[in-house]
Amino acid sequence: MEDNQGQIIEQEPSSQNDKEKKDKCKEFTPFERYKTLIAARNFHYDNFNKWLSYFYIAIGVLFVGFYTLKTSNNFSSFELEIKMILFLGYIISLLWYLSCKGYYFWNINFITLVNNCEEECLKLEPKDRVYFVFANKKTQNNYINPISGANISTSKVAILFSFIITISWGILLLKEFLQNDFCCIFVISIIGTILFSWILGKTVLKSKINHFPNLKIKQKKEGNNSN
């Protein structure tokens, strides 16, 4: 009897805690939701910058190793090592390229959610919103002037840069195995990179988001651009 009473007494605090948690969830205001979305977006951005440094270091070290062996007097005795370095360089560059694409995908998602929260939850007018407005679209937007700014997506530049580096590693790797001309190797490297990125992205490296609710927020092209 005493044991049953003890169990009842122990269960009461836990039930109170659950109730308090539910009450706190109900108190999750639109502004708190807005701040949480921005914090999540910034956390994702900071993590991506940390991961990028690992790719930069790895690719730089591999290229220095490749150049050192290739320019040595007895480089013919390092054929296996050179091929291994080129293979690792291509794989790491391909993963870097996929990371850039993944970051852009998630960044657009967070920006869209923030825009939607400003519009639907906070009920802000377009001119009062933060992530939807622009101070002056034409100021410093000059694609010809070498010392002026321009409306260019830095995320897309990063994706393109990683794609070019991946293709370059692919060309160096293919030259070790094929005797074809440069144009043929160049085309094979591009096709191979696109094909490998599609296979890895669709099968192994894809985020599991099928269980996430899809809000199907209408996105306007002019509201989707992100750095």
TrEMBL record:
It comes from Capnocytophaga sputigena. Residues 1-23 are annotated as: Disordered. Residues 1-16 have a biased composition (Polar residues). This is Uncharacterized protein. Keywords: Membrane, Transmembrane, Transmembrane helix. InterPro entries: 8xMP (IPR056918). Pfam families: 8xMP. The chain crosses the membrane at residues 51-69, 81-99, 157-174, 181-200.
